[in-house]
């Protein structure tokens, strides 16, 4: 039997002054979803580094995944967060993707965002999310390609 993929449930009240237990669950679930996306993409040569920022007591915090694909000079920053702006879901939970390029090394390294932020439906399966994320690597404008 296949293990059920992790998902982001509805987190009512997460966007402002969240309950500490709800906030902790949100951050754990977000990290599980990003790791599952990384596992879905591993056969394509992808690796993901997941980090959590708890933020202060008045916010939900965020979970970030830095996704790299072998042979690509670019990477994707995938964020699970929440906003009072309600980007798609009534609880404000979102998944945002930025295409990025790092130029330089060490203390001289600078990250450039390529294009606009892309918002994904956090209610989708991790397979559907991973498929969309993989498509984003292919859609980086040619002017940025090495």
Walk me through what this model shows.
With 146 residues, the protein is an alpha+beta fold. The protein has helices at residues 20-41, 126-138, and strands at residues 46-53, 62-69, 74-82, 93-103, 110-120. The chain has a single domain, classed as Aspartate Aminotransferase, domain 1 (Alpha-Beta Complex), CATH 3.90.1150. A five-stranded antiparallel sheet has the order 1-2-3-4-5, covered by helices on one side. The chain is globular and about 40 Å long.
Which terms would index this structure?
146 residues; alpha+beta; Aspartate Aminotransferase, domain 1; five-stranded antiparallel β-sheet; 24% helix; globular; disordered C terminus
In short:
With 146 residues, the chain is of the alpha+beta class.
Number of strands: 5
Distance between the termini: 43 Å
Radius of gyration from the CA trace? 16 Å
Mean pLDDT comes to 82
Q: State which percent range the strand residues make up.
A: 25-35%
Into how many domains do the coordinates divide?
A: 1
Coarse structural class: alpha+beta
Low-confidence stretches: 142-146
CATH topology label: Aspartate Aminotransferase, domain 1
Q: What's the CATH architecture?
A: Alpha-Beta Complex
- Name the strands of the widest sheet in spatial order: 1-2-3-4-5
Order of helices and strands: HEEEEEH
Largest sheet: 5 strands, antiparallel
């Amino acid at each position: 039997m296949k293990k059920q993929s992790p998902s982001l449930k509805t987190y009512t009240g997460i966007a402002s002054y969240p309950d500490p237990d709800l906030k902790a669950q949100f951050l754990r679930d977000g990290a599980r979803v990003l790791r599952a996306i990384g596992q879905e993409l591993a056969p394509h040569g992808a690796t993901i580094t997941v980090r959590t920022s708890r933020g202060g007591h008045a916010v939900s915090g965020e979970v970030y995944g830095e996704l790299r694909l072998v042979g690509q000079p670019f990477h994707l920053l995938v964020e699970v967060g929440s906003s009072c702006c309600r980007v798609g879901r009534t609880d404000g939970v979102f998944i945002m993707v930025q295409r990025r390029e790092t130029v330089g090394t060490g203390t001289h390294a600078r990250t450039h965002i390529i294009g606009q932020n892309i918002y994904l439906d956090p209610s989708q399966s991790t397979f559907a999310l991973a498929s969309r994320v993989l498509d984003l690597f292919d859609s980086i404008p040619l002017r940025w390609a090495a």
